[in-house]
TrEMBL record:
Reactions catalysed according to its record: L-glutaminyl-[peptide chain release factor] + S-adenosyl-L-methionine = N(5)-methyl-L-glutaminyl-[peptide chain release factor] + S-adenosyl-L-homocysteine + H(+)
Enzyme Commission number: 2.1.1.297
Pfam families linked to this entry: MTS, PrmC_N
Domain of life from the UniProt record: Bacteria
InterPro entries: DNA_methylase_N6_adenine_CS (IPR002052), HemK-like (IPR004556), N5-glutamine_MTase (IPR050320), PrmC_N (IPR040758), RF_methyltr_PrmC (IPR019874), SAM-dependent_MTases_sf (IPR029063), Small_mtfrase_dom (IPR007848)
GO molecular function: peptide chain release factor N(5)-glutamine methyltransferase activity
Domain Release factor glutamine methyltransferase N-terminal: 5-75
Keywords attached to this entry: Methyltransferase, S-adenosyl-L-methionine, Transferase
Annotated GO biological process: methylation
The protein's name in its UniProt record: peptide chain release factor N(5)-glutamine methyltransferase
Domain Methyltransferase small: start-end pairs: 97-214
Parts forming coiled coils: none
Top-tier EC class: transferase
Amino acid sequence: MTVQELYRQARRILEDAGLDSPDFDAGELSAHFFGLDRAGIALYGNRTPPSEAAAAFCRAVKERAARRPLQYLLGQWEFMGLTLQVGEGVLIPREDTAVLVEELAAGLRGVPAPRGLDLCAGTGAVALGLCSLLPDTEALCLELSPTALSFLKRNLDAYPQYHVQVQKADVLLPDTTLRFSHGALDFIASNPPYIEREELSQLQPEVLREPAMALDGGEDGLLFYRAIAEHWVPLLKPGGLLAVEIGETQAEQVCTIFSAHPLENIRVCQDWAGLDRVVLAVHAGAAGV
């Protein structure tokens, strides 16, 4: 079969499986296995690919139809111009998280060589994205999952021009903060687990293939926000920035949690769909954002 025939077959299979974007998925798989995206298929789709590539493509299409995430099949995903390695055991970077990175970067402009933490770092998307906007940033990624750490280290190795390091750490343990000096950081950023535990089983099939550890925010979805506010905020300098991603219905609750701590200028930012997505706050003691 030619590349074009394989693409069309894949598109039909994925459409029959009920996927939302069969054209896109089939095109991404074609680009990965054959080096031809949808535009390339229109020009060179009459080529017959090597049998090994065709077989691998067909296996991937079958797995995608069974709702294995496209990103895991490709082994990598783009985020803010960065190519990040992904796979089973690590949360897939999402476009919405760019709002967190961009808002934090805007708040740090003018701060010389800002230093801070990326809590629950996963692939390192937040820290690396921030460094792509503010290259003099120094960031330390904290991550507990051994599997996620393996992807994180590979992603950091791929961008040695950025000053990002990694440590294995449990963000929920108060003693973890003893590794750091209080009042020394310019920022703390986090895209923590924030799904309510009872809602996990209702997530899309693809999301259920992602690690529960990266999704489970406790009984009410707010477990990590409480820990960050209580144990990690003291590490910020006066005027230092706290930036967290939230679920679209959690803004009021997270703001309430933060307001009970030495944080001021608490504000909510929306994603491109107009949904609440980020909460920012300033450590009390200096002018805010």
